[in-house]
Amino acid sequence: MIKLELYTGDKTYLSPANVIFTRERFLQSFPSALSFRTLVETDDAREMIYAIHNYGSLCSAHGLDSSLAPSENIPKLEEILNTPPPTPDPEPDALERLAAALEFQNLQNL
C-alpha cells in the first residue's frame, strides 16, 4: 500500500537499494526538497522511500486543487494511487469472433 507524507527533513529513510537517506543525503540528491512542497512515497511503516513527488504537480496530474493544504489532499492522493487500474475487457472467444464476422458479412450483403 502506498503512503505519502510531506518531507520535512526530520526523518531518515531507507531506499530499496539499501541506501540510508539522512537529511543531508536526501538534500544532496534532491536539493529542492525543502524549497518546494515535496511528498515522499513510502510504505506502511513509513521507513522505505520509493519515490519523491512535487506536491503541486502530483495534485495537478490527478485533478486536485494544489492550493489546499497537503493534509487535505494527501488522503485523496493515497486513495487514487492505491486504486487498482481497471481490468480490461476479456478477449472475445472464438464463437464471439465468428458471430461478429457473420453479422458483419450479413450487413454487407444487405
Descriptive overview:
By secondary structure, the protein is α+β, with helices and mostly antiparallel strands. The chain has four helices and five strands; from the N terminus they run βββαββααα. The protein has helices at residues 23-29, 55-61, 70-82, 94-108; strands spanning 3-6, 13-14, 20-21, 38-42, 49-54. The strands form two sheets. Strands 1-4-5 form a three-stranded antiparallel β-sheet. It has a two-stranded antiparallel ribbon with strand order 2-3. The radius of gyration is 23 Å and the shape is elongated.
Q: Report strand order across the widest sheet.
A: 1-4-5
Radius of gyration: 23 Å
Tell me the strand percentage band: 15-25%
Helix coverage percent of residues? 25-40%
- Output the helix-strand order: EEEHEEHHH
Q: In total, how many beta strands?
A: 5
What's the N-to-C terminus distance?
55 Å
Mean pLDDT: 93
Q: What composes the largest sheet? A: 3 strands, antiparallel
Number of domains: 1
Poorly predicted ranges: none
